[in-house]
Amino acid sequence: QRHLTIPCEMCIRDRYYMGEEEESIDLIDKAIKINLSNPEYYFYKGEIYLSLGKLENYQKAFENFDECIKLKKKHVFALYKIAYACCYLNQGKLAIEYLEKALNIHDDFQDAKILRDHILKILSAKDLSLIKELLGKIPIITNKNRNEFKNDQFDDEIEKRGNEMLNDKNT
Fold it and tell me: What is the rounded average pLDDT of the residues 8-24?
């Protein structure tokens, strides 16, 4: 009988920092098969999807942070990161709910306060140019994302999200 070993967290992080995101996700999936109840695996997987900077990955990030929170309800960083994912999924009100939960656990979590206040400004904005400006200023988690999001694809996505939010307010 073959002995299964759980990939170490350092191995997963090393792969991720070397730019081997898919390999990191594969290692996490193997770890999850062995131990379904470790919230950190879902957190790391969510972080990877969130850091990829591709809009189609935000739903996967959301799902993994959600699973982490189901396993550990007071995982303040998962609550914060799921709020980030919500921002890019055009779910500002849901992001606020998660940030409030994080702040109820750790009331001095400055990054959560800053993001909450920023999202509240976006939700109250009525002018498309202001919405686009505020969306573009949502803090990006990693340097990798900062570089990737300077391209036209992100600007186009900001335009699209801004129009969606303005249309939602007018209906």
Answer: 75
How many percent of the chain have pLDDT more than 70? 67
CB environment 101-126: b (16+ within 10 A), e (fewer):
bbbeeeeebeebeebbebbeebbebe
Q: Per-residue pLDDT tens for 158-168?
A: 566 666 666 66
Q: What is the mean pLDDT of residues 136-156?
A: 46
Q: Which residues are CB-contacts of 116 (< 8 A; sequence separation ≥ 6)?
A: 83, 96, 99, 100, 103
Give 40: exposed, middle or buried? Use CB within 10 Å, 0-12, 13-18, 19+. Answer: middle
Total Cβ atoms within 10 A of residue 135: 24
